[in-house]
Amino acid sequence: MDRAEFDVVGIGNAIVDVIAHADDAFLADNAIEKGAMTLIDAARAEEIYGRMGPGVEVSGGSAGNTMAGFASLGGRGAYIGKVCDDQLGAVFRHDIRAAGVHFTTPPLQGQPPTARCLILVTPDAQRSMNTFLGACVELGPDDVDEALIAASSVTYMEGYLYDRPEAKAAFRKAAEIAHRNGRKVSLSLSDSFCVHRHHAEFLDLVENHVDILFANEHEIGALYGTDDFETALAAVKRLGRTAALTRSEKGAVIVSGGTAVAVAAEPVERVVDTTGAGDLYASGFLFGFTRGLEPALCGRLGAIAAAEVISHVGARPEVPLATLLRSKGIAAAL
């Protein structure tokens, strides 16, 4: 792949995460679905926030996390996402730029406020997400910087964004620009609920517009209407493109050109918080992909990045991932 100005540009919901610990009783008492991402309105966000225990506020959003991880690996990344010109918007802009990611999307003036995700982490490390999208939903085709897409080897988009007509139009515009300039398009299915809500459109995206697909085993099963992973895998292989299908502690299966290879999960001493595991897997995989590495090694990089983020609270790396790769003797292969 040629050396464009940026390796990857991510497009997604610009969100500030508020993360707190909770037990299963708290989830039940507050009608929060465990392990899922639920969209909420402003009133529900205030209600849950008022009942949560002490929390940590960190910039998040799926594609934003991926790009922060990509920069931590040493990649040249950019990001497109919508925040408001408010306090949380300033936090998000500062954090993603401080991580080394190029971010110039103009903020909204006034309402709605910057999006926030209230994340409850239970003792089993599952995270239950309650998301008020706020300014995120204002992202549209006019925010897609054609020069930036053309200057990026891969355009990476998160399925979470795919709700409003404006966002769908932004997806299509970005994909068209990327392919017109000989670039690659990548999509994360994000969550099974996203797949169910937009099944026909996601299937069209995957089969006709996407070069690199990220999904866990539940998401890919939902896309192809099956509970059997092998059946879903066979459907992906028939596409003949690149896919990373993650399976938690069972590792991942990487598909490339109709062939599949299994990659083991990276050992973790203790799983603390699974928030961002898929996001960081994409960071590592795309880092390898944009350097022309073999699919299995791309998967190994994804596994290493995901293992780091699930070993602590929060969806962004606590240690430079480039340093982590050097400690494992992998940096020489990059």
From TrEMBL:
Keywords assigned by UniProt, alphabetized: Kinase, Transferase
Keyword Cell cycle set for record: no
PROSITE patterns the UniProt entry points to: PFKB_KINASES_2
Keyword check for Transferase: yes
One GO molecular-function entry: kinase activity
Location of the Carbohydrate kinase PfkB domain: 51-318
Pfam families: PfkB (PF00294)
Family, similarity comment: Belongs to the carbohydrate kinase PfkB family.
Protein name, as recorded: Adenosine kinase
Organism: Azospirillum oleiclasticum
Lineage, uppermost ranks: Bacteria, Pseudomonadati, Pseudomonadota, Alphaproteobacteria, Rhodospirillales
